Amino acid sequence: MAEPEPMLRLKEVSKRFASPGGEVVHVLREVSLDVARGEALAIIGPSGSGKTTLLNVIGTLDLPTSGSVLLEGEELTRLNEAQLAEVRNRRIGFVFQAHHLLPQCTVLENVLVPTLATRNEVVRDGAPERAKRLLERVGLGGRLRHRPGQLSGGERQRVAVVRALINEPRLLLADEPTGALDRVSADNLGQLLVELNRELRLTLIVVTHSLELAHRLERVLEMRDGRLSPL
Prior knowledge:
With 231 residues, the chain is of the alpha/beta class. Helices cover 32% and strands 26% of the residues. It is built from eight helices and ten strands. It has helices at residues 51-58, 81-90, 107-112, 121-125, 127-137, 153-165, 183-200, 211-214, and strands at 8-18, 24-35, 40-44, 66-71, 74-75, 92-95, 171-175, 203-207, 219-224, 227-230. Strands 6-7-8-3-9-10 form a six-stranded mixed sheet, sandwiched between helices. It has a four-stranded antiparallel sheet with strand order 2-1-4-5, covered by helices on one side. It is globular, with a radius of gyration of 18 Å.
């Protein structure tokens, strides 16, 4: 029986920048990676090793200098900007260290922001009830009308997770999601990500400095000098 196609496949992905002095900086060096559907993967490594750049390339926020990125068999580097925006909006969810919630909007309104850009009427029409269910799931069912300034740091980050899930993406990317949280909130958020990965059958990739969070996930890779290797 043939091996199932990976959810995500990177083939010899490199990323280079020109420094102000004209020197070429190699951030990613021929990174190849397969991630199975539903897998939970952690990427660790020192600052400046290329972790965030790799996540940005996977999420189409940045393009590789060379190599290919395939999501569910589709070559993302061949898509135009409008097509990439649709991929980001519908198929990939993002959680960052900073929650980026709109301070003037309620929790529910913040969660629903990504649905404003989707062209999928089924997803858009069902979004309010889905948002309420997800917020209830993460323990924020009683906070729908609160604004971000009325929430704790951990609560704000849980809202950001729900916002990332509202359009039902199949891939969730998290960049240092617990980096700005206290230990208890970080532990709770890490456990929540693990549970959502299992419950929703999400493919989850987390970039983190936290070994404790990394070891909650199925597989841990280390990035050093732009290269990935098993921990």
